[in-house]
Amino acid sequence: WLLRLPFLAYLTTLLIRPLLLCLSRPLLHWLIKKQTGQPDNAADVTADFLTSKRGLRQALHMARDEMHEITSDRWDEDIWGAAVPGPGAPRPKLVFYFGTIDKWVADRTRDDLIAARGCNKMGEEWKAKMMIDDLGIPHSFCICELKLEVLGETRVLIWVGHSSVVAEKTAAWIKEMVGNN
Predict the structure, then answer these.
(1) Cβ–Cβ under 8 Å, residues 96 and 105
(2) pLDDT for 84-125, tens place per residue?
(3) Cα–Cα–Cα angle for 90, 112, 164, nearest 5°?
(4) Taking a C-beta distance cutoff of 8 angstroms, is the pair 32, 43 a contact?
(5) Least-confidence region, from 23-32, 48-57, 163-172
(6) In 10 A of CB 2, how many CB atoms?
(7) Considering the entire predicted model, what is its pTM?
(8) Cβ 33 vs Cβ 43: under 8 Å
(9) What is the full DSSP assignment across 153-170?
(10) Of 25, 61, 115, 143, whose CB neighbour count within 10 A is largest?
(11) 155 has which bridge partners?
Protein backbone atom coordinates (compact mmCIF):
# COMPACT_ATOMS: atom_id res chain seq x y z
CA TRP A 1 0.00 0.00 0.00
CA LEU A 2 2.89 2.35 0.73
CA LEU A 3 4.13 2.11 -2.86
CA ARG A 4 0.73 3.27 -4.13
CA LEU A 5 1.16 6.73 -2.61
CA PRO A 6 1.49 9.07 -5.62
CA PHE A 7 4.34 11.24 -4.35
CA LEU A 8 6.23 8.68 -2.26
CA ALA A 9 9.42 8.74 -4.33
CA TYR A 10 9.47 12.53 -4.50
CA LEU A 11 8.81 13.03 -0.76
CA THR A 12 11.26 10.32 0.26
CA THR A 13 13.91 11.90 -1.94
CA LEU A 14 13.27 15.30 -0.34
CA LEU A 15 13.79 13.77 3.11
CA ILE A 16 16.63 11.30 2.48
CA ARG A 17 18.84 12.97 -0.14
CA PRO A 18 20.00 15.79 2.19
CA LEU A 19 20.97 13.15 4.75
CA LEU A 20 22.93 11.22 2.12
CA LEU A 21 24.74 14.39 1.07
CA CYS A 22 25.65 15.16 4.69
CA LEU A 23 27.40 11.84 5.13
CA SER A 24 31.09 11.78 4.36
CA ARG A 25 32.00 9.72 1.30
CA PRO A 26 33.94 7.10 3.34
CA LEU A 27 31.04 6.71 5.80
CA LEU A 28 28.47 6.31 3.01
CA HIS A 29 30.75 3.81 1.26
CA TRP A 30 31.13 1.83 4.52
CA LEU A 31 27.37 1.84 5.18
CA ILE A 32 26.61 0.59 1.68
CA LYS A 33 29.24 -2.18 1.95
CA LYS A 34 27.97 -3.18 5.39
CA GLN A 35 24.30 -3.34 4.34
CA THR A 36 24.69 -4.89 0.89
CA GLY A 37 27.91 -6.90 1.07
CA GLN A 38 29.06 -5.23 -2.16
CA PRO A 39 32.77 -5.08 -3.00
CA ASP A 40 34.50 -1.68 -3.04
CA ASN A 41 33.95 -0.92 -6.72
CA ALA A 42 30.22 -1.73 -6.57
CA ALA A 43 29.77 0.25 -3.34
CA ASP A 44 31.39 3.25 -5.08
CA VAL A 45 28.94 2.99 -7.98
CA THR A 46 25.99 2.66 -5.58
CA ALA A 47 27.14 5.70 -3.59
CA ASP A 48 27.53 7.73 -6.80
CA PHE A 49 24.07 6.70 -7.94
CA LEU A 50 22.35 7.46 -4.63
CA THR A 51 23.98 10.89 -4.30
CA SER A 52 23.37 11.87 -7.93
CA LYS A 53 20.66 14.42 -8.68
CA ARG A 54 17.91 11.88 -9.53
CA GLY A 55 19.39 8.51 -8.51
CA LEU A 56 17.46 7.97 -5.31
CA ARG A 57 14.14 8.89 -6.91
CA GLN A 58 14.88 6.63 -9.91
CA ALA A 59 15.70 3.74 -7.56
CA LEU A 60 12.41 4.22 -5.69
CA HIS A 61 10.41 4.37 -8.93
CA MET A 62 12.15 1.21 -10.17
CA ALA A 63 11.45 -0.59 -6.88
CA ARG A 64 7.79 0.39 -7.07
CA ASP A 65 7.55 -0.82 -10.66
CA GLU A 66 9.21 -4.15 -9.80
CA MET A 67 6.91 -4.70 -6.83
CA HIS A 68 3.91 -4.19 -9.13
CA GLU A 69 5.26 -6.30 -12.00
CA ILE A 70 6.88 -9.24 -10.23
CA THR A 71 3.75 -10.75 -8.78
CA SER A 72 1.92 -13.21 -10.96
CA ASP A 73 2.03 -14.63 -14.47
CA ARG A 74 0.82 -11.90 -16.83
CA TRP A 75 2.32 -13.11 -20.10
CA ASP A 76 -0.07 -14.49 -22.69
CA GLU A 77 0.15 -17.98 -24.15
CA ASP A 78 2.06 -16.84 -27.25
CA ILE A 79 4.97 -15.54 -25.21
CA TRP A 80 5.16 -18.77 -23.24
CA GLY A 81 4.95 -20.75 -26.46
CA ALA A 82 1.84 -22.46 -25.16
CA ALA A 83 -0.73 -21.14 -27.63
CA VAL A 84 -0.47 -24.58 -29.23
CA PRO A 85 0.45 -26.92 -26.34
CA GLY A 86 2.59 -29.95 -26.99
CA PRO A 87 5.72 -30.67 -28.97
CA GLY A 88 6.28 -29.73 -32.60
CA ALA A 89 4.97 -26.16 -32.75
CA PRO A 90 7.61 -23.42 -33.16
CA ARG A 91 7.96 -21.54 -29.91
CA PRO A 92 10.35 -19.30 -27.97
CA LYS A 93 13.02 -21.05 -25.93
CA LEU A 94 12.96 -19.68 -22.41
CA VAL A 95 15.32 -20.42 -19.52
CA PHE A 96 14.72 -19.13 -15.99
CA TYR A 97 17.39 -19.50 -13.32
CA PHE A 98 16.15 -18.48 -9.88
CA GLY A 99 18.20 -17.95 -6.75
CA THR A 100 17.58 -20.29 -3.83
CA ILE A 101 16.70 -17.31 -1.67
CA ASP A 102 16.11 -14.44 -4.08
CA LYS A 103 15.13 -11.24 -2.35
CA TRP A 104 13.56 -9.87 -5.56
CA VAL A 105 11.19 -12.72 -6.41
CA ALA A 106 9.12 -14.24 -3.60
CA ASP A 107 9.56 -18.01 -3.20
CA ARG A 108 5.82 -18.56 -3.59
CA THR A 109 5.69 -16.52 -6.81
CA ARG A 110 8.67 -18.44 -8.17
CA ASP A 111 7.24 -21.82 -7.16
CA ASP A 112 3.82 -21.01 -8.66
CA LEU A 113 5.44 -19.94 -11.92
CA ILE A 114 7.57 -23.10 -12.12
CA ALA A 115 4.51 -25.29 -11.42
CA ALA A 116 2.37 -23.54 -14.03
CA ARG A 117 4.88 -22.82 -16.80
CA GLY A 118 7.98 -24.92 -16.28
CA CYS A 119 8.93 -28.25 -17.80
CA ASN A 120 8.07 -30.48 -14.84
CA LYS A 121 7.66 -33.94 -16.36
CA MET A 122 8.29 -36.05 -19.43
CA GLY A 123 6.41 -34.81 -22.49
CA GLU A 124 6.64 -31.17 -21.39
CA GLU A 125 10.05 -30.47 -22.93
CA TRP A 126 8.43 -27.76 -25.05
CA LYS A 127 7.79 -25.69 -21.91
CA ALA A 128 10.22 -23.19 -20.41
CA LYS A 129 13.27 -24.59 -18.66
CA MET A 130 13.12 -23.38 -15.05
CA MET A 131 15.50 -24.22 -12.28
CA ILE A 132 16.43 -23.09 -8.80
CA ASP A 133 20.11 -22.49 -8.10
CA ASP A 134 21.78 -25.01 -5.81
CA LEU A 135 25.22 -23.36 -5.73
CA GLY A 136 24.39 -20.39 -3.52
CA ILE A 137 24.76 -17.84 -6.32
CA PRO A 138 23.32 -14.49 -5.18
CA HIS A 139 20.92 -12.32 -7.18
CA SER A 140 23.82 -9.89 -7.59
CA PHE A 141 25.98 -12.52 -9.32
CA CYS A 142 27.36 -9.98 -11.78
CA ILE A 143 29.03 -7.87 -9.08
CA CYS A 144 32.61 -9.05 -8.88
CA GLU A 145 35.69 -7.94 -7.05
CA LEU A 146 39.08 -7.51 -8.67
CA LYS A 147 41.87 -9.13 -6.63
CA LEU A 148 45.60 -9.36 -7.11
CA GLU A 149 46.94 -12.92 -6.99
CA VAL A 150 50.61 -13.78 -6.93
CA LEU A 151 51.41 -16.97 -8.80
CA GLY A 152 55.10 -17.65 -8.34
CA GLU A 153 56.83 -14.53 -9.65
CA THR A 154 53.82 -13.42 -11.67
CA ARG A 155 51.14 -11.05 -10.45
CA VAL A 156 47.71 -11.60 -11.95
CA LEU A 157 44.49 -9.61 -11.61
CA ILE A 158 41.49 -11.92 -11.38
CA TRP A 159 37.76 -11.37 -10.99
CA VAL A 160 36.32 -13.03 -7.91
CA GLY A 161 32.60 -13.71 -7.97
CA HIS A 162 29.88 -15.75 -9.61
CA SER A 163 29.91 -14.24 -13.11
CA SER A 164 32.03 -17.06 -14.54
CA VAL A 165 29.69 -19.74 -13.24
CA VAL A 166 26.62 -17.98 -14.64
CA ALA A 167 28.40 -17.35 -17.96
CA GLU A 168 29.25 -21.05 -18.27
CA LYS A 169 25.65 -22.06 -17.50
CA THR A 170 24.35 -19.51 -20.02
CA ALA A 171 26.76 -20.74 -22.69
CA ALA A 172 25.55 -24.31 -22.16
CA TRP A 173 21.89 -23.23 -22.47
CA ILE A 174 22.62 -21.33 -25.67
CA LYS A 175 24.53 -24.27 -27.16
CA GLU A 176 21.62 -26.53 -26.28
CA MET A 177 19.12 -24.17 -27.93
CA VAL A 178 21.21 -23.71 -31.06
CA GLY A 179 21.97 -27.42 -31.25
CA ASN A 180 18.27 -28.30 -31.15
CA ASN A 181 17.52 -26.21 -34.28
Answers:
(1) no
(2) 666 666 667 888 888 887 777 788 888 988 888 888 777 777
(3) 70
(4) yes
(5) 163-172
(6) 8
(7) 0.64
(8) yes
(9) TEEEEEEESSHHHHHHHH
(10) 143
(11) 150
